[in-house]
Design brief:
The complex is a heterodimer. By secondary structure, chain A is of the alpha/beta class. Helices cover 47% and strands 11% of the residues of chain A. Chain A has a single domain, classed as Aldolase class I (TIM Barrel), CATH 3.20.20.70. In chain A, strand 1, helix 4 and strand 2 form a beta-alpha-beta unit. Chain B is α/β, with parallel strands linked by helices. In chain B, the strands form three sheets. Chain B has a five-stranded parallel beta sheet with strand order 7-6-5-8-9, with helices on both faces. Chain B has a three-stranded antiparallel beta sheet with strand order 3-4-10. The chains are: A alpha/beta, B alpha/beta.
């Protein structure tokens, strides 16, 4: 008996042996990424950019020492970035471990700030499949709006693309309504070709976002790697009509760099992506630097860290 | 052969000497050392975080002496250079203030040693900048001695300025000076080296880090002094030296929220007023040294160290250990 299968873009991609991903020109990508850092953004445009970047932050704490108190404190910060500066946006989301989702959800009630949870054996992803599924379900049941999963880099590097694809698809299923961000951990993938292929696998398997890094591996997010992933998102959009989000994470702690990323985003994907539904920064110290720059623009006075809350 | 040297013609009467001389010159030329070479002039750059960048602004000005001779192209520093320098000073602050006071003394002594070794260069630069030979020698000597003076004070001013305070409860109560943090300094404008050394030394002896604007009209020694600092165990960022205009930079020196104290050495009432106003934004210590003659003994004092210190008081609970119910 012939089983009737629906032909999906994912299936086509898979049947091509995951070979549809184009190769990446390393030198070209790096030169192009460097050119985005030469734009001059001043005055109102700069303020708008800083505000937008603030609104795109996933305020993150992913430490073994995280406690309920720490998470509550961070949630307060997410909602009250700087009360002396009226009209500031909130951050997009807070990002915590599954065990802290309930605490965060309660603390953020009614604020519009989303709760993202890492899952699937973050950060290594070296857990049995059943654990990854239950990890994800636990986070979703506790109220996570978004799940940040890690791919199995070992399997990916072994060439087990089917395994990686299926794993992402099954986590997507376990997510239910929650949006799925797929962390590629680009620092462990080594080449841009592999980053591009992992991006394609993630998107075709059902990711809502692709994300560079866990923040636990160096190098974390870099502009060239993000550029490769943005290119993958653009190609995916042209062939399927679906808009996938992008989240560079780790190592973005200065406002200037955040503005460079926004310039790159605007030039590769355009205005449709210039919002926190489709672009996020995974960061913890970036928020304070943005606040310091905003205060500098407002008062004309260079700011000091002493006057901004740490958490 | 005739056009290869000037010397040959003057000694041509003596054949032997002539041959010797020619032989010598030929040898020099074959080594690639021309008999008359073009002097390589130094690029005077600013000093931030232990490195010598050019100013971010790309601007420069020409330093001249009173005879109108051009001495050098000097960086015309901008507010962004100052901003970078404050970042460097702040990040160096923890390490520098955390060092043992004795070790800071050793490092100040080391600066003096290095300065002694490069005496000739400083004298030369001072002479270019309108000092007489004797004045220059005197100024360099005084600068070295001033560093030695503060090297000695590094681990001594604390005791003299600390107190044990009598209190009406069973506490051991004591007050000690601690470095205030990052200090921005506008150095004396009429002195190229001594003024600069005299304001930097007490600030770093006390465990602060600093950003210094050197004399606009006499900037040469400041840049060379930065090279001395760079080769004398002073961690990068502890002293940062900029060159540029007071009129452009003073307000940023005064209002930067990450600067804890401000030293100004000129008698310019309008700028002093502005500094006091803007300095109040984050309650900076604002210190004016416009009446000090750096050439005299007034130019050095442990009280100058205390100008950038803050007194911290500790209440330490104790048992009533004194037999006769005394406090201590």
């Amino acid at each position: 008996m012939a089983v009737k299968t629906t032909v999906t873009p994912g299936l086509i991609f898979r049947q091509a042996g995951f070979n549809l991903s184009p190769r990446v020109d390393q030198v070209g990508i790096e030169e192009r990424a460097a050119r985005f850092t030469k734009r001059s953004i001043k005055k109102e445009t700069k303020v708008n950019g800083l505000m937008l970047a603030l609104n795109m932050i996933d305020l993150t704490t992913l430490e073994g020492k995280d406690s309920e108190g720490k998470v509550k404190q961070m949630c307060y910060k997410a909602m009250h970035l700087l009360d002396t500066y009226p009209g500031l946006p909130t951050v997009a989301a807070v990002c915590v471990y599954p065990s802290m989702v309930k605490t965060a959800k309660k603390a953020l009630e009614g604020s519009g700030v989303k709760v993202a949870s890492v899952a699937t054996g973050f950060p290594s992803g070296q857990e049995p499949h059943s654990v990854k599924i239950s990890d994800t379900k636990f986070a979703v049941q506790n109220g996570a709006d978004e799940i940040d999963m890690v791919i199995s880099r070992g399997k990916f590097l072994e060439g087990e693309y089917n395994f990686v694809f299926d794993e992402i698809a099954s986590i997507k299923e376990a997510c239910g309504e929650a949006r799925l961000k797929v962390i590629l951990e680009t620092g462990e993938l080594v080449t841009y070709d592999k980053v591009r292929r992992a991006s394609d696998i993630a998107m075709y398997a059902g990711a809502d976002f692709i994300k560079t890094s866990t923040g636990k591996v160096t190098p974390a997010a870099t502009m060239p790697v993000t550029l490769v992933m943005l290119g993958a998102i653009r190609d995916f959009y042209f062939s399927t009509g679906k808009k996938i989000g992008m989240k560079p994470a780790g190592g973005i702690s200065k406002s200037k760099l955040a503005l460079h990323y926004l310039v790159m985003l605007n030039e590769i994907l355009g205005e449709d992506w210039m919002n926190n539904h489709l672009f996020r920064f995974g960061a913890s110290s970036l928020a304070n630097d943005l606040l310091m720059q905003l205060m500098k623009e407002k008062t004309g006075v260079y700011q000091g860290k002493d006057y901004f809350s740490i958490d | 052969m005739a056009n290869s040297t000037i010397k040959t013609s003057s000694i041509s009467s003596n054949q032997k000497k002539s041959i010797k001389a020619i032989g010598k010159i030929d040898k020099e030329q074959s080594n690639g050392v021309p008999s008359k070479r073009l002097e390589i002039l130094k690029t005077y750059k600013i000093y931030i975080g232990g490195a010598f960048p050019r100013t971010e602004s790309g601007r420069y000005y020409i330093a001249e002496n009173s005879k109108g001779e051009k001495l050098a192209n000097v960086c015309l520093g901008s507010r962004k250079d100052f901003r970078e320098a404050v970042v460097a000073a702040r990040s160096a602050s923890g390490g520098w203030s955390g060092r043992a006071a004795f070790n800071r003394g050793q490092i100040l002594y080391r600066i003096a040693e290095m300065l002694e070794g490069r005496k000739a260069q400083f004298i030369d630069e001072l002479v270019k900048q309108d000092s007489s030979k004797q004045e220059a020698e005197n100024e360099v000597g005084l600068s070295i001695d001033r560093l030695i003076y503060y090297a000695g004070w590094c681990d001594k001013f604390q005791q003299l300025n600390s107190t044990v305070n009598p209190v009406a409860s069973s506490h051991f109560n004591f007050s000690v000076p601690e470095p205030t943090g990052v200090v921005s300094i506008i150095a004396p404008q009429d002195s190229s080296l001594l003024g600069l050394v005299s304001v930097i030394a007490p600030v770093i002896a006390g465990g602060n880090t600093c950003v210094v604007l050197a004399s606009y009209s006499r900037p040469l020694c400041a840049v060379t002094f930065a090279e001395v600092l760079n080769s004398s165990d002073v961690p990068g960022g502890v002293v940062n030296i900029l060159t540029g205009k007071i009129s452009e930079l003073a307000s940023y020196f005064a209002d930067h929220m990450d600067v804890n104290a401000l030293i100004f050495c000129e008698h310019q009432p309008d700028i002093k007023k502005m500094m006091q106003e803007k300095g109040s934004l984050n309650l900076k210590r604002v210190v004016f040294y416009d009446k000090i003659n750096w050439l005299t003994g007034d130019g050095q004092s442990p009280y100058l160290i205390m100008d950038t210190q803050e007194i911290k008081t500790t209440w330490h609970p104790i048992e009533n250990i004194g037999g006769g119910k005394s406090g201590y």
